[in-house]
Amino acid sequence: MTEQDKTEEVKAPKVDSTLSKGLLILEALSAANGAKGVSELSRELGLTKSNVFRLLQTLCVLGYVSPTEDKRYKATLKTWQVGRAVVENFNLRELAQPEMQMLSVETGEAIYLAVPDGLNVVYIDKIESTQPIRSWNPVAGHAPIYCVGTGKAILAFQFDRMKRRLADNLQAHTDLTITSLEQLQAEMERTRARGFAVDTGEFRDRIRSYGAAICLPNGEAIAALGISVPDVNLKDGDEDRYCALLKSAAEMVSRRLAHS
To answer: Which of the listed residues 80, 105, 120 is the one where a domain comes to its end?
Structure first.
């Protein structure tokens, strides 16, 4: 191998700047709780307004972004559909189905399979509760990643990378929502240490949820299993039992995923 060949071998791949800027805009809109304007995106991403506007028009034509009546922009479901297709290529729902069925039989409560989507989680599969009093979230529904069990379980593995984005987006949904970055960091450390997450009613009043992350062999959390329970259904010892079952189930899916 010549010196020139060696130089070319270690040279970093060339990144298309237009594509990368467009993807940054799409990621920012996907993570937002609402629509964003050109000026807001320009400030957030460090791009010129003209550049942002031009790229938004392209994303609109391609169907990934749509304008609102007040001249702002939001990501469309096409973004979610692409992400969902990637997840389905992992056969994640099929791989997780035995554990979801087990959790449903053992608890009688709503069981969820969720994946991260920016600052949210999206529910890609579920088994309905058999209880008279139950919690409810639809498949394809979403929730803030920082205040539900599945989201907190995933976030615990991504917190250092995401905390800057979370800093200005910790909105209160109930009186129990964690809105302090320092308190959330401490919660993430506890979550990683015990292997499961607990939502004490931080997204919906009197709905507790628990989550455990499904991880790739490299430790990346790509999904989570969750149990959602109205607090009136909980009896003594239920929470500890549910969390132990959930942790074991997520570990089993992770092992199955590693060999798929």
So the answer is: 80
**Which pLDDT tens digit goes with each residue over 67-81?**
998 989 998 878 767
β-pairing, 120-127 with 142-144? antiparallel
- Domain end, chosen from 53, 80, 107, is at 80
10-69 pLDDT, tens digit per residue, is 455 677 889 999 999 998 888 777 899 999 999 999 999 999 999 999 999 999 999 998
Q: Which residues pair with 207 in a beta bridge?
A: 230
φ/ψ region of 44 (left if φ > 0, alpha if ψ in -120 to 50, else beta) reads alpha
Q: Which residues pair with 120 in a beta bridge?
A: 117, 144
Same domain for 76 and 93, yes or no, is no
Whether the CB-CB separation of 152 and 14 falls below 8 Å is answered with no
